Amino acid sequence: MKKFSFRLEKVLKMRAWSEGEARNNLGRAVGELSSIEQAIAENVLARGAAAAERWTEFNTLNMMRYENYLKRLDDEKDDLKTKAAEAELKVEASRTAWMQAKADLKTLETLKDRRHHEYRQELLADEEKQISEIRGSATAY
Description:
mainly alpha
């Protein structure tokens, strides 16, 4: 009997590649979100240190410098929070795309398994038929 072949093997490989790309895109999106969250944490630490250091030398020029620096850190934190919200949306979109690609791949893998199982059943039935034919012809002698 001929070897098992799945007619949609190329489609299966393409869907597997597509699922891998979607997984990689999700990883990149999560990494980007993580780096933004890290930058926010560093910003908070820098702001805390600057706020505490502001009172070490009490003069008008230093006070103005620290106030400007703290304002810049606050503005930067607001920008980072906006970027984080956008990155979270991108992560969710990437996760949805990955889950869809994974489901598409799973569908074809299930179909391939089912076809392989059918092939094995046919193969066993043919072997049984051949064995019974051999036994039938052996008893005829």
